[in-house]
Amino acid sequence: MDPYAALRYREFNIFLLVRFAMVFAWSMQFIVIEWQVYSLTKDPLSLGIIGLMEVIPAVGMALFAGHIVDQREKRNLLVTCIAGFSVISLGLFLLSWPGLQDTWNFRTILYSIYALVFMGGLVRSFLGPTIFSLIALIVPKKIYPNAATWSSSTWQLASVLGPALAGFSISWIGVHWSMCVIFGFSLMALLFLLQIPKKPILNPKIGEPVFQSLRDGLRFVFGNKAIFGALTLDMIAVLFGGAVALLPVYAQDILHVGSEGFGILRAAPAVGASITMLGSTKFPLHKNAGKKLLIAVFAFGACIIVFGLSELFWLSVIALFLSGAVDGVSMIIRQTILQLKTPDNMRGRVASVNSMFVGSSNELGAFESGLTAKLMGTVTAVVFGGCMTLLTAGATAIASPTFRKLDLQKDIDEHEKD
């Protein structure tokens, strides 16, 4: 297959610019918030609460968001999501204003940050399913795997640059003006998106009762062994391997590398994942996908253990880099499974379940890491998470031979015939 097939469509290129700007802004914002909150509290549990504040609305609204996405026009719905994120970014910019910090006590500022993060979780419950559904309306089915790879690669590239710039910008211009940069990128995403015209609604069941719609979505996901297996495996791995939530603790108190070192640590996994994803455009991962996914998750757990035990900055960076590289394999395979095996009229609901399983497990993993760090210490908590990831991959490989033998080549051949 042509490795640049999806890039030959103008609207898809605009979509990639929108996704880059949004992911860049969102990932940079999360890092700046983490730094600001830990600087205010010096409590690792407060980092976990950030994740909890986002995951509660993201999970609570996910299925209903998926139903709405399947019923509505996708471009305008994404415009609404980005506009909502822009309002939240503006609020965080105002909360970090030095004059406000001189007049408000730190608890008022902290709780206000948590409130805006909670609102961001509501936005995110709609954002993921809308983006997933919009891709299918921009490119033909036969190049879904290639489009999924480029979309995931763009996501990872933004995830590299966002955290890296966040760490440096905190050092160079401070938290307040870093928030201003984030707001600017959200507006940029909005301007790019307006260049994409509205898209048709492909769902033949417009007006379907919401609970019937939700039941159909859940029944499809739980009945499809490939989708359910990939989501479950990734969810547990991310839940227990969420060491990145504790990076402010490592940067400030264990490795003593400051905000610039924090930016490098935070960007290292995404650099590794980006290299994997760009390589996958030349060397696809769809053959023996199940076996490759299991190996990738096992290797991810091993990298997290090395990072947790390391007291050397360079070794920590390498461990995080490798964890990102193998996590990139996992992400590509999961996205390819979802794109190939999901009907057009159910994309919003399936993507919502995906966000509940995998996307929200990042925040639950952050809460788990913060809580276990509070109870058993930071290093022990990270090592424990890595060990649980190893056990999960091993148990899945033994208990599910069907998933272990999963191969996506047949699905790709069928789409190319369409």
UniProtKB/TrEMBL annotation:
Question: What are the subcellular locations of this protein?
Answer: Cell membrane
Keywords attached to this Swiss-Prot or TrEMBL record, sorted alphabetically, are: Cell membrane, Membrane, Transmembrane, Transmembrane helix, Transport
Superkingdom of the source species: Bacteria
Residue ranges annotated as transmembrane are 12-33, 45-65, 77-97, 109-138, 150-170, 176-196, 227-251, 263-281, 293-322, 375-399
Q: Where primarily located? A: membrane
Q: How does it sit in the membrane?
A: Multi-pass membrane protein
Q: What is this protein called?
A: MFS transporter
What is the originating organism of this protein?
A: Flagellimonas iocasae
